[in-house]
Structure prediction request, 366 residues.
Amino acid sequence: MATSAYGVNHPMARRIWAKKLMAEALTETYMARFTGDTKDSLIYVKRELAKDGGDNVRYGLRGLMTGAGIVGDGTLEGNEESLSIYTDTVTVDQLRHAVRSEGRMSEHRVPFTVRDEAMAGLRDWWTDRMDVAFFNHVAGNTDQTNLAYAGHNSTLTPSSLSGNTRILYGDGNHTTENSISASATASNVMRLTFIDRMVRTAKTATPVIRPINIGGGQKRYVVFLHPFQVYALRTDATANRITWYGTQQAALQGGKIAGNPIFTGAIGEYNECILHESTRIPLGASQTTVRRAVLCGAQAACLALSKGNKGQAPNQMTWVEELFDYENQLGVSAGMIWGLKKSSFTIDGAARDFATVVQATHATAS
Prediction:
């Protein structure tokens, strides 16, 4: 009987496994459900480098026109308004990791192959690495300075322009995370009124933070919370205040827009926000008792994907197999050229987060 086999270093095997790893890793990431190729996506995917190569991609934001216009038969010529175009740049670089067997005898003792386990291990590694980078950026985690954990782009602290700040501290009576850390009172742990403040900030920001178009004419923001913050929401029973159970008597009905991935895994909906929980929400700057919840609108982050190495297809990871020690040991590596960062534009001479609002709260396991 004739069979088809793809052995170590078979060209077709490498392509199949590279494609499989990319598909599985992206599917497993928490951020996958929020990515898209349109400006209505939370994470805007840019693929220009998949065709042309290069180490960065620049994308733009067109500001709202502010001119009054000309009424009646007034002269329009000479009163035109120039367009305001703001730009941001995402840098891409290569990131790789590898697995290597001890040798044929070690492999002989177990009922699995190094290739299979390498696939599973590298998939989980890439899933964690991409999600960690996303949350480090949108939450403005500047404590993370290793670009391998930040999508090859430096994280930016939440913009804090006077009257247009994108970071909120506790109940509003604090101006630093250090102050929140020192105040473990109930007024500084996560509650629904904090989400109200985040929404208010998003709607009055300059530029206004656009919600995500989820279909059917409905638009929503997405709010990411740490499990400690979710616990505080669920157990808040303070009198004369809107609480979690007061708003969740009618549970989230599997997503009001059938099949929309933004609702997948959501823990609730409140004030035009879909609420999601993630352990990867980072700590506050140099703090151990403060977590940064984050509200995201459309184009909160940009993900740039580049073409692979060794002639591989665009948006596909590399998969390289090598034999060592007289072909006794099998090594497998997987890599990708990519970049991710929070969208931030310089407007009127100052950097502004484009579509994120951070809410810092006291958050511990107790």
Notes: The two ends are 64 Å apart (CA to CA).
